[in-house]
Amino acid sequence: MNDELKRPRIARIWRGRTRRERADEYEAYSYEAGIKPLIDNAIGVQVLREDKGEETEFVVISYWESIEAMSRFAGDDPTGIRHLERDPEFLIDLPQHVQTLRIIVSHGDTGGGDGMLDRCFQSVTSG
C-alpha cells in the first residue's frame, strides 16, 4: 500500500473498557492480535488509553480512504465488530458496533504518545 497517495476520508472508531488491573495485559494483547492487522490495512491507526478509577478505556481510531476500503477489512458491515479471540476475557462489555465518521477537516500533527506502538516502533527501527 502506498500511503503517500491515499488521504484518509473515513475514521473508524472502536471503544472498549477493561478492569484497570488487566489494562496493561490487554494493551499488549490487542496490539499483537488486533492493531497489527489494522496497521497492515488502514492508512493510519491511533490507540488511545484513559485510566480512570477501576477501569481503563481504550479507543482505537483507524483511518481509511473510503468505506469500500474499510469494508474490505471489516466485512460487509463496516460498523460491525471483529472481536478478538480473547476480548470476552478482558473487556467489561463487548462492544456491539464501531462508529464511522467522515473526516471533514484535519490539520496539524495528530500523532504522538509514548505507549506500546512507539515502543514497538523503536525496537523495530533500532535493530
TrEMBL record:
InterPro entries: Dimeric_a/b-barrel. This is Antibiotic biosynthesis monooxygenase. It comes from Chelativorans salis. It comes from the Bacteria.
